[in-house]
TrEMBL record:
InterPro entries, A to Z: BetI_C, Homeodomain-like_sf, HTH-type_TetR-like_transc_reg, HTH_TetR, Tet_transcr_reg_TetR-rel_C_sf
Protein name per UniProt: HTH tetR-type domain-containing protein
Gene3D superfamilies on file: Tetracycline Repressor, domain 2
PANTHER family: HTH-TYPE TRANSCRIPTIONAL REGULATOR RUTR, TRANSCRIPTIONAL REGULATOR-RELATED
Species classification: Bacteria, Bacillati, Actinomycetota, Actinomycetes, Micrococcales
Amino acid sequence: MPKIVDHDERRELIVDATWRLIERGGFERATMREIAAEAGFAHGALQRYFPNKESLLAAAFVRAHTRTNVRAGAALPTLRGLAALRELCLEIMPIDRERVQESRVVVAFWDHAVQDEELWNAHRENALHWRAQMGQFLREARDDGELVASVDDQIVIDQLTAMNAGLQIMCLLMPETTTRERLLAQLDAFLDTLRVPASVV
């Protein structure tokens, strides 16, 4: 009886191997042959699933964002307003080993995305999704009387997007400045500038 091959499982194993190599030495230094060996496959078998490194990097990137979105999807339904906005940022920010690992993949992806339209579109689609969520949470916060009147939603979304991206870079370059405690303090200090003081509520 011929062996049944689970192609989705094999793709996941290959992406797993790619993540490990990115964490150990970066995506640029890993060859397709090394990725195949790390995954336990022959080089030719790898190419059946990913014809080139760009397609493999795209799959690794999609997984990073999928993991973030799954975590957010589990936490956000019970939250709204600034609490939901804070939670979304925490799922993106590199506050633990899992999220730092995701940052390594995302940062490796960015360099390729600026030169490849397909990769650029993959990044843009997810970034727009997060920005839309931020906008929704800010509208909820305004409806609930949480926001100071002067808050410009678009500026806040731009600031949080830049903050999250910058922290993903800094956790790799200067990890001592991106401890969990410092990241939480930075995020909470920013959100406090948006919030109506308790004495006014």
